[in-house]
Amino acid sequence: MSSPLVSIASGQLKVTVNPQVGGTITSVVHVTTGLSVLGEVPWTAAETPIANFAARDETQWLSRYSGGWPLLFPNGGDACTVEGLFHGFHGEASISPWTYRASPASLSLQRRFFTVPAEMERELSVEGEWLVIREWVRMTGERPVEVMWGHHPTFGSDLLAGPVEITSGGRKVTVDDGFDPAANPLQPGAKGDWPVVAGKRKPFDLRYPSGRISALAYVSDFDRAWIAMRRLDNAIAISLSWDAGCFPCAWLWFELAGTAEAPWFGRGNLIGLEPNTTAPAVGLAKAKARGGNLLRLQPGERLETTLRLRVFKPNGPILEPPAEGTGN
């Protein structure tokens, strides 16, 4: 059975979503240029549900991953058991079906979760060159619960068809201390001022990734929470902004032909720019053990937040997030 893909659009942007698998945003196309900006994977993802909405490990999760922009909740990273409950890799929200209502320029998604006593509503709307995502989480249980909440937008396709530059409002960066594949040029656990961190051979400038890379770092200490990426030929760019009070860090993930093992086989071409409540990206249990900042939901609590993605043709380096409705 084909997936129930839903598209919303303005005259300048077309956004496609798969409500059946995590409400994942599968495609964002800049209508004026015809260029696509979200990442894709070199395999065909399955769309059958996973038992208990919990992927047992990364490999099983990847079997449902089509690239694009999943939502991570209530777990991010490794599968784990917390207070006797198993949380799948990257959490229930990323792979489960969402109910939805659609109009030509907006989409509302809803889910009541199985693995935590919470429900969420997400409203995606397209306004000119902007995709605006508004989210509400309501705690329905009688005891506090700790969760991870984040976004997993990966960029690729036409945006990575040439060399790129990444800029950010973050001031600090920390390299993940446990993720160290063969193609990682970064020194695990290194800390520095954005955009330079210690590399295994020399300092590494995170603004200009090139060659074969598989790496993970965390950008933090935001005054204004934003991160942007543009093709150096100015053909296309994206700028993502969010509320640092909700998501104080951003996971920066490079998968640029760096993983030789299945299912990548050296064919990946993705860069993740990922706002999150928590670092490191190792799942609830390990993150808590390492002193990570988990989100604690209180009974009856209702949280809301907004993220904004602009897709546009830039005029040069992006040094701050453009004001909504304006040029670069």
Spans with pLDDT under 50 lasting ≥5 residues?
A: none
Helix proportion range: under 10%
Q: For the record, give the distance between the C-alpha atoms at the N and C termini, rounded to a whole number.
A: 42 Å
Q: Profile the largest sheet.
A: 12 strands, antiparallel
Taken as a percent bin, the fraction of beta residues is 35-45%
How would you classify the helix and strand content by structural class? mainly beta
CATH topology call: Beta-galactosidase, Chain A, domain 5
Rg calc = 18 Å
Morphology: globular
In short:
The chain is built from 2 helices and 24 strands.
What does this molecule look like?
This protein is mainly β. The protein has a single domain, classed as Beta-galactosidase, Chain A, domain 5 (Distorted Sandwich). Strands 8, 9, 10, 11, 14, 15, 16, 19, 20, 21, 22 and 24 form a 12-stranded antiparallel beta sheet that branches. A hairpin with a 5-residue loop joins strand 19 and strand 20. The radius of gyration is 18 Å and the shape is globular. It starts with 5 loop residues before the first strand and ends in a 16-residue tail after the last strand. The model has no long low-confidence stretch (mean pLDDT 96).
